[in-house]
Amino acid sequence: xxxxxxxxxxxxxxxxxxxxxxxxxxxxxxxxxxxxxxxxxxxxxxxxxxxxxxxxxxxxxxxxxxxxxxxxxxxxxxxxxxxxxxxxxxxxxxxxxxxxxxxxxxxxxxxxxxxxxxxxxxxxxxxxxxxxxxxxxxxxxxxxxxxxxxxxxxxxxxxxxxxxxxxxxxxxxxxxxxxxxxxxxxxxxxxxxxxxxxxxxxxxxxxxxxxxxxxxxxxxxxxxxxxxxxxxxxxxxxxxxxxxxxxxxxxxxxxxxxxxxxxxxxxxxxxxxxxxxx
Length: 278
Ligand code: FAD
What we know:
By secondary structure, the protein is of the alpha/beta class. Helices cover about 50% and strands about 15% of the residues. The chain has one domain: Alpha-Beta Barrel (TIM Barrel).
């Protein structure tokens, strides 16, 4: 069994050392059997998980896995940013997911002052080609965008600044991805645009997270999941089949890879990847 396209898995940083140990021993080790290209670890709003992200990434690398930190400028000055980049390079990191990042509420600095393009530029200036740089992309349009065209333009600016590949926000409508690939190609963007995939385990959690990041959960899907709400097994089976089917469509559309938002769980993701490989 082999994966039809390269896959990667995203974690959020556990709160403490025992949490990190559990993540590596119980989750990353299981997911690593699926042959991922890398694991990535998110970075909290405004740098709030700076140490946690660094510790999780180095823990994964020490356990023998490929790991990439998510990173954003937040409130850091240039010296703090370059020190972090140097520390990552010294720890054996060769891939970074470069983001503007979500700001914590009440955060005072300008919302757009430090966008991802600025970070990509800064990393290339300081670190040259030491890191493979991933950036975020939005097939369903970023909520801050003034228009679809403006959003695409910001994406292109990150690419022109030196991004190597992109990972999309998750979505459940394959047409949005197809349309985004077409618009990106027409704009002259030729880097791989890996599809972000969110396995579904719980309707309530899905709606909460999707509202936060403006990902659309189709009405029919919400109703279908609501009907199964009291039956955990049936919800899991339906969701795995639905997301497997979505992934198959994305691969048929030319997705160069799939990036799974695992929420630090291995069950649903493992079943989906096994279906794709089988
Ligand atoms: P940018 O590319 O800088 O901007 C996103 C959009 O905002 C642009 O496309 C544009 O529409 C608008 N915009 C940007 N600058 C301007 C401007 N000057 N004027 C007008 N409009 C502008 N968040 C976290 O906090 N931590 C994480 O670890 C994390 N990981 C993520 C991983 C992936 C793969 C994805 C898709 C998202 C992730 N996010 C994370 C969420 C992300 O930080 C938010 O979506 C954030 O609001 C935008 O980040 P960006 O890097 O896409 O920003």
